[in-house]
Amino acid sequence: MAQAWPKAKPKLTQEAFDEAVSSNIEDFDMSREEAIKSAIEEFNVQGYDLSGVVTNMAGNDLQSHPIALACQGLRDACGGQGSLPEALEALSTSLQASTSESSGGGSGGVGGGSMSQEASVIAHKGGAMQSLLEACRQLQSQTDQLLKALKLLQVLLGWLETRDAFASDATGVDLLHDLLRAEASTPEVRTAAAAVAEAAARQVEEAKCRLVDSGLVATLLEQLQAPEAPLEYVGAACGVVRSVTTADDERPPASKAFMHARVLAKSHAAIRVLLSVLRRVPAATEPATACRVLATVRQVAANEEICREFTDDGGVMACLQVLKECAAQRDVCRACLGALRQLAHSDTVKRLLAEAGAVGEAVRCVELHAGSDDVAEVALGLLGNMMLRQPEICTKAAESGVPEMVVEAMQRHAPRAPVQRQACLVVRIMVARNPELRPLFLERGAEALLRAAKAAHPASCRDVGSAALRDLGLDNYND
Predict the structure, then answer these.
(1) Where is the stretch described as Disordered (predicted)?
(2) How far is 200 from 124, CA to CA, in rounded Å?
(3) Is residue 259 classed as helix, strand or coil in its secondary structure?
């Protein structure tokens, strides 16, 4: 049955909010602060979405706000009335100033890649995104200014409504595609254009589809094949491929993420391109880029056929080699385990990994990062996928210390529902077809840990915990 997402809340307009604040002041003799607080509470109770409202500016003239004035200045400059470089600088300064004030010192300013709600809403209402697209078109021969415009565009796309507007304006995707293909574009410009595309695709299904349908993602994959592609560009391009193959927009009834993965793998050799990139990236010295490549592999390897192609070309062994070399680097370790976890849905990959020592590597990773619940969760997930319907691998896992590791992980990460759920699954998988392994868990106190997981995390662990207790041969497993 398809997932039924919650019905979207109605959007509250700035005008309706301002009117409610004014009414509270005039009719109930409230102070401005009290009136704003009361209006927020009232609209929240009524179920409105206030994300597009500037609450702390209610009753003021937003058109006089420095960001609104900067947006107007940029529109004028794009129309030939003023200097574009000066207008870009003014917009950047106004966004930084507003964000600094709202974040208590600028820790989340424009340079950090995020903005306050106030700054985002005013910039969106002022048409900053559309003006920046026009500025990019006019500045293609001025690399420094073009990069500044693209950086501002990427920051503005942190706001969902701006991303929706970008997706609805096909000229934005066309502009990015032109910048990627232009012979005059520098590697820095291509990297910035890819970063904008990735930002636009986050949680917006329409943008994902436009990026794939326009051929932009295919262009990225073609350019990734160049041995001289800079690492910054590799990371940005992989980010786009990963975004369009990730179903993270809850609003449409369905996502094309799986179809995108199939099309990109079949028609544009995506999984082979990613393998060639993975082999080029020095994971030990460039962990951030390696993590992005591995995360993209995880998303593109969406079915058995793609997993088999990646495996036949040596991809599984390449991932495992990175894991062995960089297990001590937490982020790379987690990314490798995540990619292998996805690939291990294939029966062929399960056996290959077991023969290559992946079980022992997973246990070692958990030991190396004993305090990291996310490493424990993904390592347990990998082991569960490897051992599912594979009794011989379950036996090898028992000999490699998996029962001890599972019990220790449950004890160490008792508050973490994802870890507890994966641990429950691993216990069940190991003993379901190998009853001789039951004592290895029972003698270490697994029963009490499983019951505790069910009690502490009923939504995540009640079903899998009961199944594990049942397959351990215990009575009252539903209690």
Answers:
(1) 92-116
(2) 14
(3) helix
Q: Express each pLDDT in 319-351 by its tens digit.
A: 999 999 999 999 999 999 999 999 999 999 999
The whole-angstrom separation of Cα 371 and Cα 220 is 38
Q: How many residues does the chain have?
A: 479
Residue 382 CA to residue 116 CA, distance in Å, equals: 38
- What DSSP designation does 334 have? H
**CA–CA gap between residue 206 and residue 164 (Å, rounded):** 8
C-beta atoms surrounding 439 within 10 Å: 12
Can you say whether residue 424 is alpha, beta or left, with left for phi > 0 and alpha for psi between -120 and 50 degrees? alpha
Which residues lie across from 11 on neighbouring strands? 49
CB atoms within 10 A of CB 129: 23
**Tokens 């004028």, located at residue:** 76
Q: With 60 as the cut, is the pLDDT of residue 189 above it?
A: yes
Q: How confident is the model at residue 121 (pLDDT cuts 50, 70, 90)?
A: confident
With residue 409 as reference, give the H or E element that holds it: helix 402-412
Distance CA 93, CA 110 (A): 9
Asked whether residue 60 carries a pLDDT value surpassing 60, the answer given is: no
Under DSSP, the state recorded for 356 is T
CA distances from 35 to 32, 59, 118, 374 (A): 5, 11, 18, 44
Rounded to whole angstroms, how far apart are CA atoms 63 and 52?
16
Cα(17)–Cα(40) distance, integer angstroms: 8
**Distance from C-alpha of 293 to C-alpha of 48, rounded to nearest angstrom:** 40
Rounded Cα–Cα distance for residues 246 and 260 (Å): 9
